[in-house]
Structures are given as C-alpha cells and as structure tokens.
Amino acid sequence: MSVRQHRLMFSAVALTAFLALTGCGTGSEDASAPATTAQTPTGTTEGSSPTQSGSTASPEASATGSTPAQEPAEATSTPDAPASAAPESTPAPSATAEQHSESDSGGAASRPTTTAPPGAAEGGAVASVENCTTQHLSATVSPQEGATGSTILALSLTNESAQACKLSGFPGVSFADGNGAMIGVPAERAGGSGATVTVLPGGSASAALKQGNANNYGQVCNAHTSDHLVIYPPENTEALTVPYQTQACGNPKIMQLEIKAFGA
Questions:
Q1: Is residue 123 over pLDDT 70?
Q2: What is the residue range of 200's domain?
C-alpha cells in the first residue's frame, strides 16, 4: 500500500470520527453528511477498514439524529386534541337556539287575545259621558205639592240628543218678564250638592224648586207678573226658557225661589 493511500485512509477515518462526535448535537441534516463523505474513500481503497469505519459511524449518526426528528413530530401532534375538540362543541349552541326558537314560536301561538270591553270607543279608549249641553236639552216645570205660603215645583230637563249625557249640581233659575228681563234675584241653592245623574237619550232628570208666595212679603215684595222662568243647566252659560206666569217679587232682598241639586 502506498503512502498516498495510507494518508487518504487516515483522513477518511479522522473525518468520520469527527462527524460521529459532532453528530450528537446536530439534526437529521448533519447526520446525512458523514454517510456521503464516508463513501468517497470506499470507492478509492481496497481495504475493509475504511468501509467498516464508515458503517460504524453511520448508525451512530442516524440514531443520534433520529431523536430530534421525532420530538418535533410529537410536538406538532399535541395541539391537534384541542383543535379537534372545538368543532365538536360548536353544534351545541345551534341546537339550543333551535330549542329556544321552537319555544318562542309555541309561546307566541299560545298567547291569549284580548277584545275591547263593551262600550269602548274606536281605538280602545272607553267612551266617557259628557256633560249635557243646553242645545241638546228641553225643560218643563210642573207643580208637585203645595204648603202654606209656598209651592214645590219639579224642574225637569230632558235629553233630546242621541247620546247619553250627565247632569250634576245646581241649575240656575230666575223669573223673567215678557222682554226677557230678570225679576228679582236668582234662586238660592238649598241642600247638598246631590249626585251625578246620567240621562239617556229621551230620558229626564229632575230637581226640586220651591217658590214662596208673593203675598207673604206684603208690599215690600214689589210684585210683578212673570212671563217665564229662565233656566241655566249646570256647567252651561246658555239658558232655556219655560213659560210660567206668577207673582214674582222684584225686591232683590227677597229670596222667593230655592233650588235643589240634581240627584239630591
């Protein structure tokens, strides 16, 4: 064997040993290097030593390099478990939403319907009864009973409209002559305020009117013959007139008339 061949063989052995030692700290890329380098002297030498040295280094290098190669594979497989678990939990809200949707639709179908109460006006508001107005009323006065020195009259107001209305409180009453001028003073209110009376179409409500005789007061009465009574329904400023002739005192200090409230 020549000196050149010994040198080549020595260099191959040294290189192989160096690569085997450094292969412990390198990855799979470094492990493949000595296998290729070791094959170079195998083709140029006839001895078996370089070939055995190269084959000895190659298992060590592959065993050393296989350990780092497997560790990344295990590391990459670890996140797969939570990733695969996430899609499995996704349908749960959907199923819950469907259940709520079915529950809501069932609840809407079972809700009871309401109807407006009898007598409700259009739009759902309950119709209210308004005060009777003068233009929808007519009046009458009729004697009820007499007593010494006075007469009790029934003053009645009739609802001439197509809607019910209400009367409450005292009407205003006074004597008037043929020209419409008031004689004496208006009737004095007597008793309590009464109660609200609902007057249906065509119906009537009455209040008691007491009239004192003019003779009771002598000449200080200053008597005049009345032509009618002037009647103001409660809460109205327009009056009704009723034909009524009697001796009415013109003295403003004499209270010849007394009126009670409706519903008293």
A1: no
A2: 130-259
